[in-house]
Amino acid sequence: MANSISLSYDGQLLAEAIPVVEELTPPPFVPFTEAARAEEGFVGLTGEHPVPGCFVCGLRAPGDGLRIFPGRVEGTDLVAAGWRVPVTVTGDDGAVPEALVWAALDCPSGWAHTPAGPGLLGRLTARVFRRVYPNGTYSVVGRPTGRDGRKLFGASAIYEMDGTLVAVAKATWILPR
């Protein structure tokens, strides 16, 4: 396919990226202070983290990884985290590379399915509207959008402090057998 990118290892296709035109619906905005408060409920902090070394939501030392810990927003089906963007993820142009913005959208859509999820990411479709900068504070929000057997569907978004949408994604997660 034209403009596709694939990643293989030892002759095995591991991942493929293709451009798509698709409408993405973000979960609703959660103000930063409420999102940061929700982190206290992040299931991964209680020792039940399936991948504690995850670059996005893993229990890494400060400055190592994105440290996005989405917890349940009280009274909703949302999870959220207040993302304090580390300077260690800055690109040469002074902003966070778009690939890392995509990464930030990954885990919240999976953790939105707690206690069932997050499972293993099967597909992520995203769109980035604005740049993300180090030392910035953003709300990262996730919401479950459905389930079909072992497949979990979710949406995620990154918002600026004033509620401006930065990026949005939808994901398909697969639960183990």
From TrEMBL:
It comes from the Bacteria. This is PaaI family thioesterase. It comes from Sphaerisporangium aureirubrum. InterPro entries: HotDog_dom_sf.
